[in-house]
Specification:
The structure is a single chain. The chain is built from 1 helix and 4 strands. With about 70 residues, it is an alpha+beta fold. The protein has one domain: Alpha-Beta Plaits. The longest helix is centred in the middle third of the chain and has 13 residues.
């Protein structure tokens, strides 16, 4: 599944490797979007990393099947 995690504060795209290759973009207003294809276990691990960086979590949204999902 494809997920989008939004956090308050700017996070440089170079953090992508630490977030298992997730796409990292910063929107106007200082909101960072971490997005990509992950399963539930990996999603929980990413949320732990957000917590460890003390980034205020704004939202987690499932966007739909990931690029590799067959939608079964």
């Amino acid at each position: 599944m494809r997920y989008e995690i939004r956090v308050a504060g700017g996070l440089d795209p170079s953090w992508s490797a630490w977030f298992d290759g997730m796409e990292i973009t910063t929107e106007p207003g200082g909101v960072t979007v971490i997005a990509g294809d992950v399963d539930q276990a990996a999603l929980h691990g990413l949320l732990v990393r957000v917590r460890d960086l003390a980034l205020p979590l704004l939202s987690v949204q499932r966007l739909g099947p990931g690029r590799g999902d067959r939608g079964i």
